[in-house]
Amino acid sequence: MKQAHSCPLTVQFTHVLEAALTRVFPRADGVLRRMAVAFSGGLDSTVLLHLAHDYARQRCLELFAFHVHHGLQPAAEEWLQHCEAYCAHLGVPCVATRLQLNSADQDGVEGAARRERYRALAHLCRQKEVGVLLTAHHEDDQVETVLLQLLRGAGLAGLSGMAVQGDTPCVEAASALPLVRPLLFASRGMLKQWAEQHHLRYVTDASNSDTRHARSALRTTILPHLSARFPGFEKGVTRFARHAATAQYLLNTLAIADYQACSLDGALDVQQIADLDVRRADNLLRYWLSCHGVRMPSERYLEEIRSQLLQSGASAQPELFLESRIIRRFRNRLYCLHEEDVPRDKPRADDVLFPFVWAGEERIRLEAFGGVLSFFPSAKGVSTHWLRGRPLQLGHYRGSLRFRVAANRPAKRLKQLCQEREITVWARRRLPLLYEGDRLVFVGGIGLSAEYADTGSDCLEISWLPDAALPAFPDFGGQAC
């Protein structure tokens, strides 16, 4: 196979990739051992795999080609066979996965395919312990993306286009992995010239010229006219995207500063937001929602947040829906919650009790309550000797029950204790109650009953830790005070 290490494409590819990898693995102990290419078999990914194969071989890196079979095109099976044959020729393992897409998906088939493709690629990366994923997005893709965002009325974040280095999009933050686009500097013409020079065979997706799709219509009918009238306009568009990215970075820096001033345990203080200039408040809200994985909201939606949530009375508990999230105001704070984490049904008076026996575990996962009970040695808490093996019961929150947190304090209703600790109404419904018979031993988020509190070397502190998806509240402790 012909090598061309002095070719500008190879040199620039290597420079861009290594600069990105330095940002992904900044420490000396952060060594890259495996990387993967998202390989469709088309022109762009074929050139990328060809370049990455040479790069990995010189540096003794293990390289994978990940192919996602959408099943949307009649030729999809042939494309998979082509990819497997080409990878076998290079000596690169080809790992394929098949998707089943829902035609009724709210993002449409095209949007759903993109989302599920990235999720599948991230899963393959974790499965094969791959440190970074390479995709074949190039300069023409960047131009199309920026112009489409402009036509949709996007803000600076959308007009910034794609970054060379980031995380896998459409993937939950906890599962996201480093992604690098090392060909953003190269035009489609450069890639085609490289493929011809090295006799690379690739497949052609007929849907790329189907003008029913917005991107295809832009690529085949509009961009050629722009190129004829404004030669080299692509460089201007990509330069504009870099300026937009810089401006967005500065806005994010301001938003982070405002977030640190206005937030408490992930919630936003309503009064402090109201004190900000409207444009600055919107900037903060966009940043806050993006931290919760919500796509950039429209101007109209931000107006709804300001009018319904920020300007309502202090005792009101209004809420708005955005994708699968609920934006709620509670006690002059804004919370962003997953719909499934906000139970709609109030607990029944005869709520079911679950048997519970502690056998020395440090942590016990309670699926019915969405969190973990932890037990650890403490000078103050419940007696280990008393707790071990004792038949107890777990039940759901009931605000009318009375509970004493300290011997020198009166018993109060759980509702009042939760209000004092600013535990939100929806978080209360996930709090576990630990009973001995009909007497409360422990209440998650509040603590241990004074009746069961002890001191000495044989004590355990009980702590309730709700899942990270639930809104945090100030006091998780289980020791009596």
List keywords for this structure.
Rossmann fold; alpha+beta; 481 residues; single chain; six-stranded mixed sheet; disordered N terminus; 21% strand; 3 domains
Structural summary, described in words:
With 481 residues, the chain is an alpha+beta fold. It folds into three domains: 230 residues, Rossmann fold; 77 residues, Up-down Bundle (Chorismate Mutase Domain, subunit A), CATH 1.20.59.20; 113 residues, no CATH class. Helices cover 39% and strands 21% of the residues. The protein has 15 helices and 21 strands. A hairpin with a 2-residue loop joins β10 and β11. The radius of gyration is 28 Å and the shape is elongated. The N terminus and C terminus are likely disordered.
What is the fold's blueprint, element by element?
Elements: H1 8-24, E1 34-38, H2 43-58, E2 62-69, H3 76-90, E3 94-98, H4 108-127, E4 132-134, H5 139-151, H6 156-159, E5 165-167, E6 178-180, H7 188-197, H8 214-229, H9 233-262, E7 263-264, E8 267-269, H10 270-274, H11 278-291, H12 299-310, E9 319-322, E10 325-330, E11 333-338, E12 354-356, E13 363-366, E14 371-383, H13 384-387, E15 392-395, E16 402-403, E17 412-413, H14 414-420, H15 425-428, E18 433-436, E19 439-443, E20 447-448, E21 454-466
Parallel strand pairs: 1-2, 1-4, 2-3, 4-6
Antiparallel strand pairs: 5-6, 7-8, 8-11, 9-10, 10-11, 12-15, 13-14, 14-21, 15-18, 16-17, 18-19, 19-20
How many separate domains make up the residues?
A: 3
The amount of helix comes to 25-40%
Q: What distance separates the N and C termini?
A: 74 Å
Outline: elongated
